[in-house]
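User: Can you model how heme C sits in this protein?
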Amino acid sequence: VRVFARIAIVVASLGASPGLSPWPAAAGMATIGDDRSGYERQDFRSNSRRVESTGVRADLLARILAPPLGLPRLSADVPTRTQIDLGRRLFFDRRLSVNGTLSCAMCHVPEQAFTQLEQRTPVGLEGQAVRRNAPSLFNVGYRPLLFQDGREFSLELQIFAPLLAANEMGNVSIGSVLERIRSTDDYDARFREAFGAPVTVTTLGSALAAYQRGLLSANAPFDRWRFAGDAGALSASAQRGFALFETAGCASCHTISASFAHFTDDDFHDTGIGFRAAMQSEETVSRLQIAPGTFVELAQPARIVGANDLGRYEVTGDPQDRWKYRTPSLRNVALTPPYMHDGSLPTLTAVIDHYRAGGVPHDGLDPLIKPLDLDAQDSADLIAFLESLTGDDVATLIADARSAPIGDF
Ligand code: HEC
Ligand code: HEC
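Assistant: Here's the modeled complex, given as structure tokens:
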């Protein structure tokens, strides 16, 4: 029965997010991975490709010291190049997981905008489902609170959540991770070079944080128009979309400052997604797909219970915080479907429809979310604006990521 339950969970989470084909791609951004179109057919051919470590290293430190147009200075201590290089190496090292199969980069895939586009929520250790959609790591160095419920306070500390979660990297203790790294390759020498100290809780956190702080992405068409006065940088449609973004109240939560824009207030709001998921948390299935074109009919229908997710309430215990999630930044949002904390909205069109309908009405819905009177042109304009938030440096950061070796046993 347990095995069967596991299969059901895996298949439920593997259901490809509809509407993802073809995947969005920034200029020069090669997609890897598989959108699973045709997965229901026996002649399905995977589009997955072997990842090659042949990328061109970028100067992430220079980018931290002088962030691209549209972003302010980072407030954290500036790392060194050696620390960034060590963090990059660790980020791609599968030996950080208990059985050497899963690296950070497998849920935060560079070619998929440092998130994962293949499922609504990524798959962790041994095919186990993970509860939430993985956020893109672009510009994560600016987030004062991490995770979509804001439960962690720094990039240095954040890593222990995925490293120790049984359904993510599956390590059994902090010490066992440190011991494995210490006894692997020449990591000991690399840590001593980067920090003058061996691998510890602190230096491991600092190394991974150093690399992630370098993932700055901006200088998007919107930035050039808004912050550099380049009138031609933004299409007329995107300019109309931006005006709507302000009048429809989007910018109250997805904020824009005078000289930079994070497109998030880093605060927590209820837009109704969590409420709706809680109302539809159970599904009954009698047919499961276990391989391309291969289905099994179940003797007994199986109940698939959705992940119980109360958002910010899980951190504060305050009933007012139920189903509140952190406002996501909208930078590079065109590259990161599916959307919302559970990946339940497949496209930007679906997101705009969600707001047009006034979210999912219920007690607790944020008062800023109201039905909007938007016609088809308005929606297209809003999407054109959201598409103008794609940084010009995405391909550079992907190439930089692929300059790292994939650590493997
Ligand atoms: C099994 C998939 C998986 C793996 C492996 C994984 N992550 Fe994540 N990551 C996620 C998911 C899902 C979330 C969002 C969880 C939440 O909000 O509760 C997340 C959140 C994060 C965040 C917070 C981002 C934000 O905007 O708040 C950071 C930073 C991060 N991961 C870095 C890492 C690093 C570094 C590693 C490797 C040590 C790693 N992740 C391994 C799936 C994964
Ligand atoms: C009350 C604050 C608030 C307002 C107003 C608001 N948003 Fe959001 N937005 C959020 C929150 C919170 C989420 C994440 C919800 C979740 O994960 O369940 C979100 C998610 C999104 C996403 C998905 C991003 C991702 O990476 O998943 C997009 C796109 C978006 N909003 C665009 C807009 C637009 C366009 C408007 C105006 C029509 C708008 N938002 C108005 C708070 C707000």
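A couple of observations from the model: Residues 1-22 have pLDDT under 50 and may be disordered. The CA atoms of residues 184 and 346 lie 40 Å apart.
User: Helpful, thanks.
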